[in-house]
Amino acid sequence: MSGDEKIELCDIDAGTPREQGEQQGERLGEQACALFGLRWRLLRLRSRIRDVDQLHAKAQAHVEVLRSFDGDLSDELNGFARASGLEPWQLVILNHYTDFRDIPPDDGGCSVVYAPLVGGNVSAQTWDMHGTAEPFVTLLRLKPRDAPPVVLFTLTGCLGMTGLNAFGVSVCINNLTPNDARVGILWPALVRRMLRERTAEAALEVLMRAQLSSGHNYLIADRARVFNVETTGVEKRVTFRDASAWYWHTNHYLDPELRAFEVPALSTSTTCDRFETLTGKLASSTTRPADIDALWTLLGSHDGLPRSLCSHLQGDDPAASKTCGAIICDPTRSHILARRGCINGSSYRVVEVEA
Question: All domains of the chain, ordered by start, with CATH?
Fold first, then answer.
């Protein structure tokens, strides 16, 4: 399966972080403004904080943390803001929407798989979010002056949701919902910072030192190593590190100690259904995908629809959770496979990290 051009690729020329942010803002700014409008409305509907000034203040606090965490990423975000007409705090809403404080749990989420295939290990995931975000899913290829080239699966206006760098380091994530969220580092900025490293172990060290904002599951891998880390706003646990074994994760904590931090899932949540589907396919060597194409087919499974790995809108709410895309990171061949929208029965686009 290959050759599908449905997901667009935005190539950014080499330059300083501010220049690269300005290029993104010039090319993607109109879409980012539209996405901000969608996410701002959803945030005001779903957040327990009804005061707009408080929401603004919380977003601005994250801007200050980003500046302290990483000057280059702060410069890139500010360059995007200047070129697009958005304010930096508005880009925080774009980047940090799923983890912004006081948003209740959603009913969807992402499914992550680490697969030690015969031709080299790969990391894969579906990306589920509010269905109105699907048109804004894109690929971004950056060539920073002082960091490795990287391809990112992202939304317009976001620093990067998951990706692979030229050293073969990949980062995939699941959203988790703990009860100890706080102001901290924007999670897309943390993904980007990890993707500057030469090894998965070095990326892990970045994560373990970071001042987190809320909970995520991070799957960090390179050609030889893998680490899975569950986090809350404060706590971090390495739950997996065997590069020869299969691993999968959805949107609930597996570490027994971290379960105490978990906000109860909505009754409509599909996380346990998706985890059971993956367990049924991946726990036994007789049912595991044999290659990348078979893994892609698994990501697009409609078994148990609508509570399937590739999920779809339910009812009449266009903002309900659905699968808005998927990605496979292949460090051995230094490319990613990606698609926007439904994965079931679909093909993918192949993008090299270094063009």
Answer: 9-99 (no CATH), 112-352 (3.60.60.10)
